[in-house]
Write the structure tokens for this entry.
Amino acid sequence: MSPSVSDNVLADRYRLLEPIGIGGMAEVHRAWDTVLQRHVAIKLFLPGLDPAGAQRFDNEVRVLAGLSHPALVSVYDADTTGRTPFVVLRLVEGPTLRDRLADGPLPLDEARRLGARLADALAHVHAHGLVHRDVKPSNILLDHEGDAYLADFGLAHLTGATRLTRTNQLVGTAAYLAPEQVLGTDIDHPADVYALGLVLLECVTGRREYQGTEVEAAVARLHRAPAVPEDLPADVRRLLEAMTSSMPQDRPTAHDCASALRTGTPLFGGAGVEPETGDPTEELPRAARVPWKGLVASAGALVGAFAITVAAISEERPTTSSPAATVTATQQAAPEEPVPSTQSPEPVQPRFVGTPQGADTTPPPATPEQEASTREQAGPAADKPKRGKGSDEVPGKAGKNGR
């Protein structure tokens, strides 16, 4: 322990008890506040990390201190300048959502309620110009009443602010990254909506959608869309598909997600919905709406649990694709060429600059108007017929065989 901790007492006030969580740059302890006589959670910054890690820890404290929402963990106290930087948080007694899902999927009503609460919390975060960037089951705490709390804002990012990572690296958890995070492009609020969509999908299926190694899990979303069960209620299925759309602009806002989950109102006009024509309950095949080939071809960077560089991922290509996806990608790659009809009575002749070899140079016959114009310019002589070669007649005289 550092000098700021004496006899397991931090800052002469907080008695550290057992650890309840250990992460990449911090560990969380249950503690006893000797002044206010209550249990709290204390997050200690681990020594020996790089300055960027220390800056992210300080960022988390400042972000949480500026937010106030029932589904966010409250900040009670903090010191980010001492020998042992720490933040004192409300202690949420209960498991994480990851622990809960180890026992199987949630009932649909419970998943709706949990999703609406988390989406509402994200809407509050987004209203303050922030992106969480690491929404996942292990960062969602559950109390004994089953209420959810979004935690761990260490990677939260102010939209438009300077990155805390190098340009060829991103941070996050591979299995829950949005496609734009995998591609290394700028991210905004839709990235959190995508991650929450994957979390809710896991809640109703009981399994993580993209599995495997960090690289495999991250690149998998460039090969295929998440598999949303067909037996879910139509509004839930449509919402999950919209939340996990490959294109950020096609995803609903966190506020709209919260409203849809709370009221069961379908999100018409979202991804894959054609409300202006046909039956609005009919949807296009997801593969036909997702330009997966274009995304894979554009991939230049990829992240894992914390920061993994994936220059080699641009070599990856999908091994299989649905016919609809192939048709869509082909149509986007090159516009369709018109096919000339074999029954056209007037085929279109190509126009050339100059006279190409083998082209017919015979001028077309003149129209009556053109002939009249030519005679008018040539004068009376133009009306006198000329004797052509081999002609049998001369005007004014009998022909060779005339009488």
